[in-house]
Write a sequence for this structure.
């Protein structure tokens, strides 16, 4: 099933996104449009595959929506469960690296110590023609 | 405060002409007028050049361009922002990559103290407000050179905000007036660099080198307060000089340590801002201004022909000299920003708020960093003007070349000659020779001591200035000889023998009675002829002023 973090992440992301697009889902309706599914699939490279999966997603959103029952007026949102921890500062010395061989063992294809990737980004099927992204 | 100079050129550019004080127009509507634009608190002169297109014969159609910049500067540090692998420009592929940089599961980011200090120092130098608490976020997008699928950056609450950068525009000819312009800095944030991709078109694949992945970057966002390519280029140059003076970044564009993206739009003054495009791949100072200007031209051209500007990303094609669309974004790119769950907020302190008994390695004191700030380029220029009485444009030129200021100061130390003389020799003759042979200051065959000695000879009037130039040429060509040696070898000393000089003058006067008559009749130019003749007779070894004095004495009744 969907791990909690993903559900919450998705819920917060959708809520955040609602603030952006005019074609947002109506508040609390729980229906996720095909357009949103397509957008999600492209962004997160998940595959919803079937209508069942979409239904599961909608249930997960509804479950997380129950957070709204809590009154959070005047409460500072928590940024991170680590917010009371001290951020450790490392001193600027070189202690890692020099393990090209080890790293390259993970690669499917290697050319002279370079990782090999397909040219640019490959567009997902059932999209319109899309130019491959050139160098960022 | 003096700041770098920018010359506005009245060149053949059809729409960019510098005319101050009234905006004189000539040609067919290709002119510029100046109007005061929106207020900018920090400049006394808030002006924006207007651009009139060539096509307007009917009515003057004025356009104003708006340019904002996003500058990425690689932090000069030994190790990367969140890992302990080395930061170095050239190394075998993937040899400077740690497990974290390669995004292997189970690795976590650990913040590099030096990078935070660099960010704070840069923020202070740019008059920013340093946020005592800043947060890290993830910016998600898929690309092969970003192994994690996200970049750790500071989107919500960056480390520094609301600063300013001052640069100078030099207008008019002699005397040239200096206008200081300011561009506001929206924010400075810490973020990770991505790896490098090499595109192999032939085999339809991309080769990935992660040496650069994870290197610390300072992203400096400049508000759209600039109005043309030249202003943008000058602002970037000044930022480069500041970063180099602070030591926070080597800011070498050729090595990719400084990368600039521009946001460009055009509009009619008084109307709302137009649609902006983003111009990327501006990796050379030379082409920065050109790319921005060509994009402005393109936008004006499109709009005047009734077309619309798309909100897209374009890159500058050096060979074609214009911008080309880079990638089509299906709508706006959605980066799905989220807080970085593995990093607590970054807390900075000042002397007041420093917790007692804290481990000094683990806390950063903003006040302490402020005290360590070195002299900034604008302060250096001002100091040079005050100390040596040189012109602002010379002050700028001295700072504009690596090592030139040090060379200049070393010469000044060892010579009695006036600073103005030294400046003239260093900036015109010395720099001229360097540029001719494409050498850096530290590759110069002439040492500061040698030049100082030469200038001393000149100052003592032991040689004439023509002779001095000859000596300099010889110094350049043959190493190891001192100026005095060259002078005696080539017999370039000025004639010190007063009697012999008097004799020479006498001989010339005897030999050219007609010219003498001209002088006596009051022809002011005739005496120059006599001086020339005496110089020739003495093989250019006599000081012209001395000759003139003797002749005048002899010729007076």
């Amino acid at each position: 099933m969907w791990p909690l973090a993903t559900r919450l992440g998705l819920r917060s992301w959708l809520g955040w996104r609602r603030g952006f697009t005019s074609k947002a889902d109506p508040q609390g309706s729980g229906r996720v449009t095909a357009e949103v599914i397509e957008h999600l699939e492209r962004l997160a490279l998940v595959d919803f595959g079937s209508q069942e999966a979409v239904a599961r997603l909608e249930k997960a959103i509804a479950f997380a929506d129950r957070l709204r029952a809590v009154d959070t007026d005047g409460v500072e949102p928590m940024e991170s469960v680590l917010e009371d921890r001290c951020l450790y500062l490392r001193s600027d010395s070189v202690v890692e690296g020099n393990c090209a061989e080890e790293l390259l063992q993970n690669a499917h294809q290697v050319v002279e110590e370079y990782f090999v990737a397909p040219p640019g980004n490959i567009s997902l099927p059932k999209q319109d023609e899309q130019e491959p992204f050139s160098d960022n | 405060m003096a700041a770098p100079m920018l010359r506005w050129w009245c060149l053949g550019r059809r729409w960019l002409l510098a005319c101050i004080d009234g905006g004189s127009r000539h040609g067919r509507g290709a002119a510029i007028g100046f109007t005061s634009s929106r207020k900018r608190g920090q400049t006394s002169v808030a002006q924006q050049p207007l651009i009139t297109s060539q096509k307007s014969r009917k009515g003057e159609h004025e356009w104003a361009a708006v340019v904002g910049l996003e500058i990425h500067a690689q932090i000069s540090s030994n190790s990367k922002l969140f890992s302990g692998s080395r930061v170095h420009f050239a190394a075998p592929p993937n040899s400077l990559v740690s497990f974290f940089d390669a995004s292997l599961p189970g690795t976590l980011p650990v913040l590099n103290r030096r990078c935070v200090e660099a960010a704070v120092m840069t923020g202070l130098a740019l008059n920013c407000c340093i946020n005592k608490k800043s947060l890290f976020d993830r910016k998600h997008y898929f690309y092969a050179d970003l192994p994690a699928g996200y970049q750790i950056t500071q989107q919500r609450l960056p480390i520094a905000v609301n600063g300013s950068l001052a640069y100078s525009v030099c207008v008019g000819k002699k005397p040239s007036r200096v206008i200081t312009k300011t561009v506001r800095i929206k924010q400075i944030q810490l973020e990770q660099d991505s790896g490098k991709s090499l595109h192999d078109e032939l085999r339809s694949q991309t080769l990935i080198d992660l040496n650069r992945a994870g290197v610390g970057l300072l992203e400096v966002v400049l508000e759209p307060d600039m109005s043309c390519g030249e202003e943008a280029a000058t602002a970037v140059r000044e930022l480069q000089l500041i970063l180099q003076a602070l030591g926070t970044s080597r800011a070498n564009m050729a090595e990719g340590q400084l990368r600039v993206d521009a946001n460009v739009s055009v509009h009619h003054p008084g109307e709302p801002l137009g649609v902006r495009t983003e111009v990327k791949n501006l990796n050379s100072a030379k082409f920065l201004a050109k790319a921005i200007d060509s994009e402005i031209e393109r936008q004006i051209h499109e709009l005047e022909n009734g077309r619309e500007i798309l909100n897209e990303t374009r890159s500058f094609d050096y060979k074609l000299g214009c911008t080309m669309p880079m990638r089509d974004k299906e709508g706006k790119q959605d980066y799905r920003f989220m807080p970085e769950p593995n990093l607590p907020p970054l807390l900075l302190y000042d002397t007041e708020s420093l917790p007692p008994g804290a481990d000094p390695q683990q806390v950063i004191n903003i006040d302490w960093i402020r005290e360590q700030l070195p002299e900034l380029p604008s302060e250096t220029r001002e100091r040079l003007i005050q100390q040596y009485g040189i012109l602002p444009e010379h002050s700028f030129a001295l700072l504009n070349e690596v090592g030139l200021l040090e060379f200049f100061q070393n010469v000044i130390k060892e010579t009695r000659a006036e600073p103005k003389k030294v400046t003239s020799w260093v900036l015109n003759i010395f720099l001229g020779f360097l540029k001719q042979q494409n050498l850096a200051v530290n590759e110069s065959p002439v040492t500061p001591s040698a030049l100082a000695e030469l200038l001393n000879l000149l100052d003592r009037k032991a040689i004439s200035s023509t002779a001095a130039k000859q000596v300099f040429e010889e110094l350049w060509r043959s190493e190891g000889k001192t100026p005095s040696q060259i002078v005696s070898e080539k017999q370039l000393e000025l004639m010190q023998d007063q009697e012999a000089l008097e004799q020479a003058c006498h001989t010339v006067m005897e030999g050219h009675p007609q010219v003498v008559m001209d002088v006596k009749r009051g022809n002011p130019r005739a005496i120059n002829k006599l001086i020339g003749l005496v110089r020739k007779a003495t093989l250019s070894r006599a000081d012209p002023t001395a000759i003139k004095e003797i002749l005048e004495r002899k010729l007076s009744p």
About this structure: The first strand of chain A starts at residue 89 and ends at 90.
